[in-house]
Structure formats: structure tokens, C-alpha cells
Amino acid sequence: MEIPLSTDQSLLRDTARKFLESQVPLTAVRGLESNLEGFERDWWRDASELGWTSLLVPEHLGGGSVSEHGLLDLVLIAEEFGRAVGPGPLLPVNVVAAALSRSDNRTMCDEILPGLMSGREIAAWAFYEGGGAWDGQSVKLRAERGGSHFELTGQKTMVEAGYGADHYFVTALTDEGLMNCILPAGSPGLTVTPMQSLDLVRRFAHLDFDHVLVSDESVLAGPDEVEESIAWLLRLALVLQCHETNGAISRVFEMTLDYAENRYAFGRTLGSYQALKHRFADMKMWLEGCHGIATHAARAVANGTADSRELTCAAKAYVGERSTDLIEDCVQLHGGIGVTWEHDLHLYLRRATTNRVTYGTPQEHREQIARLLDL
Amino acid sequence: MSDPANAFPMATEVPTAPTSGMEDVDAFRARSRRWLAENMTPLHQREAQAAPRNDDDDVQHARDLMARIYEAGFAGICFPKQYGGQGLSVAHMRAWSEEAQHYEMPSRFNTPTMTIIMPTLLDYGSEAQKMEHIPKTLRGEELWVQFLSEPTGGSDLAGAITKATPNGQGFIVNGSKIWSTEAHCSDYCLCLCRTNWDVPKHQGLSMLLLKIHQPGIHVEQIRQVDGSMEFCQEFLDDVAVPLENLVGAEDDGWAVALRLLHHERAAVGKASPFGVTMPMGITVQVGARRAVSGAEDPLVEMTKQLNLGSDPVVRQLVAQGRILSLIQSALVERVSTGIESGVFPSSAGALQKLSNATTGIARSELALEIAGTGAAAWLKPGLVSQQAAFFLGRQALGLAGGSNEIQRNIISERVLGLPREWAPDKGVPFKDVRRNTMPTRDSA
Q: Touching check for B359 and chain A: CB below 8 Å?
């Protein structure tokens, strides 16, 4: 998150925080544990009415943002989402909306964007296939050319919000190279299996494609533009993910600092012990490093500067690892209560751990940076 | 104790943007660009010419460059005109710095001389001190150091025991100072001394302005573990200091010291407008080198030299080093912006200091890991031997200018608001406080 925020951005953030606190407090998040989609559709419609799914859509397609860059507004929402361990498909819906907006496929935009922006419909990004890295080179899902269509055969996994989604944004491999397309839920030959997940409310699905037909009109990016498109969408996803994680660790840090100031041992507060004070100082430094790099990455992606690849990879690699270090240390500072189901810390640890390992692990992103350094 | 910045307006408040009567920034930039191209050496040429030089030659060269910049009217851009400065805004300083970054600059004059000591003189110096020293410094005639730390203690700065005894005309100074950077080839210093032993420690200090090379002051260079000789220790033996060399009020030296620390934080945070130039872009210090971009990162360079680029483990290590550099510069920028906009207290500068040290230490660890066995012995010195030497002295990053532990105290107490450490010297006359014994030149 930028500091300082503009008045409009502060308002956007405060509204999001109040909405999340009142509509989905942690007790409500816990209540969604056995909900198959992990969120209530009515609630998502209300959230979307606040503009949360329109920020990456340009005005002429019905979207709009508070500041010049929708992404710099959306990261504020993502951070609040992290503070609240919010339920709902914030990342996939926004990435798919951005992909639609970027394509010049007006038919698909008109057909799908209104539903996503109003929150009536959900879209998931079916990209990762397991095993390899989270990048285009690992995509093996076959798209066989038919007459005026493709036939998709293969599988996708770890598809966020994939169970119950209304649309799937799919990256597949044609004879000419990769392509992005969008297809509706219920397409013949498509089997969606819900996965069990670490996060209490963030759901993933496994998708099997058995000769699933996709019409040419549903193609959003062909081989000549798809690589750049995928790279950009991944950067968007990483920026949102890092900000969400930063929201989570900010909240955990506050909770733990508060605990240390009010918990007594041997007649003095925990926060008065130098051994613990120094750990809080280190955590504060990590926290500001996480915020700093995520902000740099967001700005670079929003402005499309040349360093956006390196900065998003650096943000993911650093935030991914530091976030779980920080939360685990906060668990340690809480003592035994920190490893109970009853305490809320694990909700945050689940979210941060999920974020650490999805959309590329820190190790994968370090490898990306090594490539950017010409090694 | 309160930051004196809050007590009264400081002379070092500089307008960020031009005010009426100032030269237009674009015109100033164009004038800077022209003059630099005609009068200064581009960095790439300078590096090609550079041969090993001794300190005296280096200092003289920096003095000559300072004089040249002063004569052309580009020295002390944010210093008031009456003291030889240009009386311009931070915007002018940035424009000049952007133009000057590709040229050789007398950067030796930056810190502490121009970014820390001169602004403190502006804030606390007498009119006579300012008239005497600021113009000469801007002309390259005076190079300054700080005499703050002592052999008996560095972190507990206010516990200084170098004594200045009033004798009617001024003070007689006895004691020892240490970790002053390149005092052996500098001209003047600000020296923190104890003038009153009957009051608590912060209330009995005074700041004196001293000529370094004079009878009674003996300067010894300290050899560091990496072989470098940039730090010095000084022994002061019955040094007579006239009253007019007192900076600030007698027994009020702590306020002056805090002001030095304030300006130091700005310098470390790359936010000081008082240097020869302001630092531009990403600069992460790794030993003696600065990594501006990934391509110039010594970890990358070393990996290529050693042909380890295809080793998957080494690739991870190099990338981790690069990431840490990027985090460090992002953190510095964030905290500086936060302090400027009032979101963070000024003590948040300790986050930058701690991050700089922990980043450098972590990167040194990565460098050794990449260097491997080659770090133990070599036929010809090179990047590997440099990194090996740096590894031995790397903890200096977490000690110089305030230890990591002190930064962690500052962050936890002043940024996060956790309780202060118990201090048995609080409110006690300093003569009754338990302390170390000052070594003499013979005993040291």
C-alpha cells in the first residue's frame, strides 16, 4: 500500500474495511468452513457493488477506478481482504476481467463482463497443471483444431474458485502455440472436482477436459500475443496476492503487539522484555520491506515499466517467505494458545501459506530472477 | 528527551519547491548540464584513468573538485547565500544531482562534512562559526569528522567521558575518541565532551569545534580486519579550546548531538539536500561497491566469473541476493516517504539502518556461499578475495553508526511504543554512574 494515500483512496480502503468487518467478521469466515464455494453469492454481489470487480475494467466497458490506475486502487482492497482473511474470488475474477478487457473480443466482453462486475457470476482462471512451474511453458492442455472450434483435452489443477464458477478462463496449447480462451461451466466433457484446501474458505478445483469444444469466438488471445498476455496476468495476480498477504501479516503483527503489551509474565508485560522487543523490531522491518516491495511491484505493473517482471518476482519470493516466518514467529510469541483451533492466528497462517505456494513458489520466482540476471 | 527540531524552527528547513525570486528549475538544470559537460570528468572516463592513489592525493583531488564546483556556483545548493551557498530549493538540488550523477564528484565531502556537520552548524553554530567555516568548507578547504564514540562506549553516546574542563578562557580537553572516519586526512571536527559531572548524563555535555591537527591531539589510524584503514582513534591531551569554539550552549551539547544524529538519519535515508549531490536511484552498498542494477551486482559478476551460472543452487543464491537489494531500496524509499509525510516518526530511520545492515550481512553470507572454497586462497586478488575480506568485517555494517541492537531498541520503543529499557543512570549525577575507565595513549 502506498503511503500516504489520497483522500479518495483512503475512503475506498475505509469503506472496504468496514464492509468486511461488519459482513464477514472472522466468526463468519469460520462459519463458511463447510460451504462448498467458500463464500455466499449474495455477499459477493454486495461486495461487487462496491466496485471490487470493476477496477481493472476500463470505463468504456462499464468499469472504472478511483485513481488513475485501477490496479493501485484494487491493491487496497486486496490488502483489506488479507486483514479480514476475506472469502470470495477477488483475485481470479479480477484477473479474468482484466484478461477480457485486454482482449479486443468485444462479444465476450459484452457477454461476460457485466456478470462479473455485478457479482452475479464468477470466473476462474484455469492455468496451472501441477508438477512443473506456474508459467506458460508448463502448459500441456491440448487444443486440437476442429472446423471453427478447438477441442480441449487434458487437465488443470489448483483452479482457485473453480468449483461452482460460471466461466473458466483457460490457457491451452495449440499446434501454433499457446492460446487463452473462455468457456462456460457445464461445457460437455468438462469435469470439475473440488479439492480439499489448507485455507478455510479459499477453494481450489481440479478440472478434467475430455474433448471440450471451444468456439473461435471464445478465444481471447492467440499465439502471437498470448505470452505477453499471460506474463502480464501473472504479474497482476502476484501483485494482488502479495498485497493480500501483506494485509494478513499487518493484522497479525498488530494482534501480537497488542498481546505483548497486555500479557503479564513474572510481573511485567511480555513487551517489556528486550529479547521480545528485538523480535518485534525485526518483524516491523520485514513488514515494511514487504509493503515496500509490493508497492514498487504494483506501481511497475500499473505503469507497465520494464522492471515490472523483476519486481513482481522479487515481491512474491520475499513476501511469500517472510509472511509465514512472521506469522509463525507471532504464533511463538502467543505461546500455546497460538497453536489452537480456537485462536484466529491459524486463519491468517492458512491464507499466507496458501499464497506462498500458489502462482509460483518463492523458489520458482528466484529462478525467474536468475534468468532476468542473464544467468 | 525531545527532539530539538520540535522545540524551535531550525535553520536547515529548506523549501522543497522554488519560491519567488529563485531561478527556474529547468533553466538551472540546463545551466548545470552545460557546465558539467564542459568542466567535469564523466564517470566512465574517470574509472578508466583511476590508478591506486594515496589518501592525501585523493583528498587534494576532492578539494580541487569542490573548489571548481564552488567557483561555478553549484556548491551548497540548499545552503543560505550569506554562507556561500546558493539559497535554492530541494527541487534545484535534485535537478543538479540528476545531471551530476554521471560525472566524477568530490563525494568524500558528502558525509559527514556536508550532510551532517554543516547543517548542524547552520542549526546551532554561532554567526562567527558559520561565517568562518561554511564558505571554506563549500570551497573544499575544510574536511570534517565527528568525534562522538569513545573507546569506553559507542552505543551509550550520552555517556561520553572525554572531559572539557572550563578554565576561564575556554576549555581544556582530555580523553579519547574513536571510529571517526578518516580523521587523519581531515581538518576539523565536532567533539562531544563532558563539561559537568554533577548533573545526569544528558545535561552535562558540550559540543566543541576543534582543529584536528594541533598540539595535544594524536591521531592513529585503525586497521580493520579487511585491511582497510578508514577509521581512526584520537587521543586528546590537555587540548586548549577557546570559548568561541563552543557550539550551542555549555552543557547543552546533547541537543547538538541529537541534531547531528537527525542529519545523519537524513543522509542515510538518502534524503539530505545538503551534500555535494543527492543520491539518485537504487544504490545498495555491498562492501566497497554499489549495485545500481542487477547487471552490476557483484554477486552476479562473481557467478559469471566462476562459471557457476548454470548451477541451480547458485542461481537461487544470486537471485536471493538481488531480491534483498531490491527489498532494501524499497524499504528505504517507503520509510523516507513515510517520515516526510508524517506517517512514521523520524525514529523510523532506524528501520533503514537496521535493514541496510542485515541486508549487507545476509548478502555477504550469500557471496561466501557462491565463492565456495576459492575464498580461502587465491593466486590473484579479485572479486572472490574482495568478498572473502568483506565477509570477515561484515559485522561492521551492524555496528558503525549505531549497532543493530540499538536500532532494535529504537524501533521497538519509539516506533512501536513498547516500554523503555531500565536505565540505572537515569536522573543520577554522572559522577555517581558506574562506567568504564578511559584508556590513555600508553595503555591503548
A: no
